[in-house]
């Protein structure tokens, strides 16, 4: 929440502090984020192993970012849903299913990107 006494710079610094707090919560307590970070780590190792180009590095990091951002948004929606309605409700189920669709979209697109980058390089090994 904005503190009316804060000037522009102080307000931005305060927001940044909360944003990093959110990042820390995601990284330390969300299993889906931990799993995606592990996959990102493997993809980075693969990038070095196959000596991918700077453009491929850029696209790979964009794909990693896309998945992490979608996972984070999904986690936030889940938190809100559990807070406003912890009991079973068909509508809450639908909201959570739709939110879960976001990282699934991102993961499928990332899989296509990974195939475009690595399949030709792996094929060269055989
Ligand atoms: N309160 C609820 N009412 C109805 N359906 C729910 C409810 N909570 C969860 N669900 C159903 O269960 C699915 C999984 O929900 P859950 O909150 O366990 O998320 P998850 O995908 O297991 O995420 P995470 O592993 O990050 O906790 C939802 O997509 C939804 O279909």
CATH architecture annotation: Orthogonal Bundle
The whole-number mean of residue pLDDT values reads: 95
Instruction: Quickly count the helices.
Output: 4
Radius of gyration (CA) equals: 19 Å
Task: Kindly name the structural category.
Answer: mainly alpha
Bound molecules: adenosine-5'-triphosphate
Keywords: ATP-binding, Cell membrane, Kinase, Lipid biosynthesis, Lipid metabolism, Magnesium, Membrane, Metal-binding, Nucleotide-binding, Phospholipid biosynthesis, Phospholipid metabolism, Transferase, Transmembrane, Transmembrane helix
Family: Belongs to the bacterial diacylglycerol kinase family.
GO molecular function: ATP binding; kinase activity; metal ion binding
Pfam family, one: DAGK_prokar
Which helices and strands occur, and which strands form pairs?
Elements: H1 8-29, H2 31-49, H3 54-84, H4 90-123
Bound molecules: adenosine-5'-triphosphate.
């Amino acid at each position: 929440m904005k503190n009316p006494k804060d000037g522009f710079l102080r307000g931005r610094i305060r927001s940044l502090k909360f944003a990093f707090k959110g990042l820390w919560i995601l990284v330390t307590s969300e299993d889906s984020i931990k799993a995606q970070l592990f996959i990102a780590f493997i993809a980075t190792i693969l990038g070095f192993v196959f000596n991918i180009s700077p453009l491929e590095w850029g696209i790979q990091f964009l794909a990693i970012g896309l998945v992490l951002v979608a996972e984070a948004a999904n986690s936030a929606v889940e938190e809100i849903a559990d807070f406003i309605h912890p009991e079973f409700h068909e509508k809450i189920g639908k909201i959570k299913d739709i939110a879960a669709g976001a990282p699934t979209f991102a993961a499928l697109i990332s899989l296509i990107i990974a195939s475009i980058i690595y399949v030709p390089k792996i094929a060269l090994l055989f």
